[in-house]
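User: Structure please.
Assistant: Input sequence and predicted structure:
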Amino acid sequence: MEEEEISARKKVLESVRQEEIVRITHDLIELRSVNPPGNERECAEYVAQTLGDIGLQVEFVEQQKGRPNVVCRLKGSDGSPRLLYNGHMDVVPPGEGWSVEPFSGKVIDGKIYGRGASDMKSGLAAMIVSAKALTEAGVRLRGDLILTAVIDEEPMGPGGTAYLVDKGLKADSAVIGEPTFYL
């Protein structure tokens, strides 16, 4: 590995701040993006504003009126290979039995609690902070970084990632921050 590449990696890692990941996760948890009924708009606006403020190109792509997917791009020097970060904004209804208010994002003993904390608002926060770290460090990737924050993953509806792919979204590799797996 060349010295220049080591230096760039170090700059990126130094730009990642745990308190920022916690703050953004907290902010996202407070946004009640429950599906059904599908009220992700406020969360989409937060993601778009946050990533737009750090210089990413931001686009809303709607399959359903009032429920935008967010597609953000950090342009690379060549445009390819394209790396996709993908996560969903919607959460299932909170249900009963919470020991904390489900949309509080409360931190207790170093853990953050709330609806969507692990599935998947913390994943979105990590992706946002990683894109910000790249821009703060002044690192320009060869290919584009595409970050999508999608709707309709709960309960596997047609308006999110599948819709973006149908509309032409392409990547060479993807990181999907989903912490769960089921068939």
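The CA atoms of residues 54 and 132 lie 6 Å apart.
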